[in-house]
Amino acid sequence: MKVHACTIALMFIFACLNTSAQQLFKCGATFQDKPCDSEVQKKYSPLTGSFTKEQVTANADTQCAELGSRSVPIIQSRANNETLQSLHAQVDSKPIGRQEKIRDKELITTVFSKKGSQAEIRGAIETDCMEKKWASRTSHTTSSSSSYPMSDGRSAAAAARAAAIAARRDKY
Predict the structure, then answer these.
(1) Own/partner pairs for 82-87, CB < 8 Å, 24+ apart?
(2) How confident is the model at residue 119 (pLDDT cuts 50, 70, 90)?
(3) Which of 7, 45, 54, 70 has a CA 20 to 30 Å removed from the CA of 94?
(4) How many CB atoms lie within 10 A of CB 70?
């Protein structure tokens, strides 16, 4: 009986894969061609041949889906009545770099600002992440004169160099 059920499930997966450019989502124990309504879903990756990316929102990329999964323990801590300050203190006590601490604290603050169920908050985190990525992509294409946009660090460094050169010119 188990072999028969697995065979049917595999046939269903391959049938879905053969359709043109359709996506496949695993919602609990069911498979469907549209995103799950209210739960964490797994998205089928044709590159790996398995359901690898766990996410809530259908359009979240791997980084945003991972950010959403990192928010789950924070959501659970908030449900256990831990405070924002205590979670920030936990991050401060970790032996990690400054930038990681800033990112972790920002995620904690963002989770605490959201309302809803665990899946809703995780979905909102993933959606916000994708919106920030989209906004940074569009700002790079509109503000950059070259076809290769500079990162924020490189553009800030270039602006600082230009200001230093201008200050030297004014001095002489």
Answers:
(1) 84/108, 84/109, 84/112
(2) confident
(3) 54
(4) 15
